[in-house]
Each structure stands twice: as C-alpha cells, then as structure tokens.
Amino acid sequence: MATKLFNPPHMDERGLIVTGGAAHSANLILQTFVESGDYVFVQESTYPTILDTLRPTDVKVVSVPNDSEGLRADLLAEALSKTPAARRKLLYVIPNGDNPTGITMSEKRRREIYDVVCKYDLLIAEDDPYYFIYFGAEQAPPTFLSLDTEGRVLRIDSFSKSVGPGLRLGYITADKPFTDKIQALQAIMIGSPCCVSQAILSELLRHWGYEGFMKFTSKGTETYRKKRDMVLQAADKHLTGLCEWKAGDGMFLWLKVLGLEDTKHIIELECEKRDLILLPGSACLWDSAQPSPYIRACYSLATPDKADRGFKILADVIKEELKKNKSKNKSGDAVASGHKEAASGFTHEPKKHTNGAAT
C-alpha cells in the first residue's frame, strides 16, 4: 500500500512496522533517535501532544515560524545554522491539514525544506494522519517520503482518521536500519500493537483491496469537506469582524481573535462553563506561557446545530471580553489623567450651592 500511495525512491531498501497509532509512532521515533541535549525542530504552532512528549526530556526544542504555506524553509535554515552540527537531530512536521493550522504545504515548500534538511544533515519525522483529508481539486502534493532520495524521512501514517479511531493503529515507513531500531524498542515497550485491532484491519483491507480502500477514504474526505464548509458558514455568520481565518484541510479551523492578545482565559473559563470546548493557541506553542490570539476549533464531530450554537457562544464571549478590556482601558486612562492633573499643581474648588453644601 505504501508503495502505491507514495511511490518513494528505493522502496526495496525501506521497512514498515505497525504501531499503536500516530502519537505512539512519534513517541517511538523520538525515543529511538533523539538523546538528551539534541535539537528537535518543530513548527511554531504544532500538535500539542508532541510538545507534551518532549517537555519532560532534556531535548532542546526550536520553534520555526510558519507562513501561509507552512513552515518557512529560510527560517529553518537560519535556526539550524545557529545550532551545533553534532546535536541537530530531527525536524517534526505535519505536511497535510496541519494540526492546528489546517495548512497543507505546497510541493515547492516541501522541496525547499527537504533541501535544507539535506544540507544540515537532519532527519524528518513526517507525521501525516490527515493525508486523506485533503480538499484540493487535484491530488495532494507529494509526501516528503516521495521526495526522499537520501533516506532521511521517517513517515508516520495512521488508520485513526481514515478507517476508525478506535483501532489505534498506524505504521512507520523508513529505511530498514531505522525501522529495525524502532521495532526493537517497540518489542520492549509493548510487544506489539493490539492483535485484535490488527486482525480486524487486516480483514478489512483484504476485503476492500487497494481500490476499495481508496474508495472508502474518498467518502471520508467528502464527509469532512461538508463539515469544513458547514463550519465556515457558521464562522461567517457569527465571527465576521471578530476573528480571521482561512479555509484549510484536515479537521481544524484556526481562528485569530482580533483585539485580544491571549485567548486562554476566555477558553478555559468563559467557554468551558458554557459547555463549549476549544483549544487556546498557547497550548500549541513550545512555550505555552506565551500569549496567543489564536483558537483551534475541531469539527470532526460537528453538526450544523452544534457549529451554529458553538460559534454564537464564542462570539458572545469575545464581545464580552473586548467590552471588559475597553472598560479597563477607559478606567486606566481616567486614573492616568487624574495623576497628571495632580502632578501639574491644578486643583478644583468645590462647587457652592445655595444651601452651602459642597459636591
């Protein structure tokens, strides 16, 4: 299947191992190839679970800014040039329907990034669970594995988004020396992924065949496309003028709230107490204490009613917060003005009324 899907160079030199899903695959790769003091490079806003995996370690994480096409290759090169060559280890990317931004990297950007990685002798962990949730008119751009002429890519695929999340199965495709090391670690950690899930998936794939599997995933793509369009309509209705966003791929809408420096307070307090579950943008940053005006909305379980009610609640919360901030600013301006008057030496005489009272 990997050969038909991605047609990578020298596939005969690569191996494939089944894992317990994408997050498990990423964890295996990090534990196998990254040591204390090594540098791992990630997108500025990225999958929170990968950040949580890295935080307890002594790995040095470098965040590289994005633009509308994804991670910027020129800034990756700049960051790499400032790190010790012996400790540069791995770049982690989500190339299609990025979590959280929804961005799909262009082919040009992927080739630029691959060239930089080759120049600075880095591995790429290509985490691509949203490969089949691509809404472009044509086929998705070639994967990093498809471009990998030097054997640097460790590709992570998952059946959670394409077949069923409860299966908790995925697979890693990489050069055989890499997959052999990963397999050895997995054998120590869990023996093997769930055998029942493997048996179910194996029978499904045998029954479908390659063409049947592709037909099934195309139906899933259309389901998600309808959900994405439905959520965009709800955003247009309720969030116009309050947020900025761009239609993307995958299952997330990345909202930038206008006029707010940080969204953590309104998400964790105001939205949650109204039963609206969203993710503040700061949760997707390596330094999660930094403010972020962004919000990640997941629409995988959204219905028209939920999307409409959810974004109506979010709009109300944003308006309330903006109103509070405006009142605080006015109050602060008034206090500052009073301090200035007192400092200038001017005073107001009390106003006399006919009854002698002063106000």
Any descriptors?
about 350 residues; disordered C terminus; alpha/beta; 7-stranded mixed beta sheet; globular
Give the secondary structure arrangement, pairings included.
Blueprint (H helix, E strand, L loop, with lengths): L1 H5 L7 E6 L2 H12 L5 E5 L4 H7 L5 E5 L1 E2 L2 E2 L1 H9 L6 E6 L13 H13 L3 E5 L16 H4 L5 E6 L11 E6 H14 L5 H45 L3 E2 L7 E6 L6 H8 L7 E2 L13 E5 L5 H41 L15
Helix pairs in contact: 2-3, 2-7, 4-5, 8-10
Question: Can you describe this structure?
Answer:
The chain is built from 10 helices and 13 strands. With 359 residues, the chain is an alpha/beta fold. The chain has a 7-stranded mixed sheet, sandwiched between helices. The chain has a 4-stranded antiparallel sheet with strand order 10-11-13-12. α2 crosses α7 (176-189). It starts with a helix and ends in a 15-residue tail after the last helix. Residues 342-359 have low confidence and may be disordered.
Please report the distance between the alpha carbons of the first and last residues.
85 Å
Shape: globular
Please give the order of strands in the largest beta sheet.
1-9-8-7-6-2-3
What would you call the structural class? alpha/beta
How many strand segments? 13
Q: Mind telling me the C-alpha Rg?
A: 25 Å
- Can you give the helix content as a percent range? 40-55%
Instruction: Assess the beta-strand content as a share of residues.
Output: 15-25%
The biggest sheet, with number of strands, parallel, antiparallel or mixed sense and barrel status, is: 7 strands, mixed
Order of SSEs: HEHEHEEEHEHEHEEHHEEHEEH
Low-confidence stretches: 342-359
Average of pLDDT: 92
What is the count of helical runs? 10
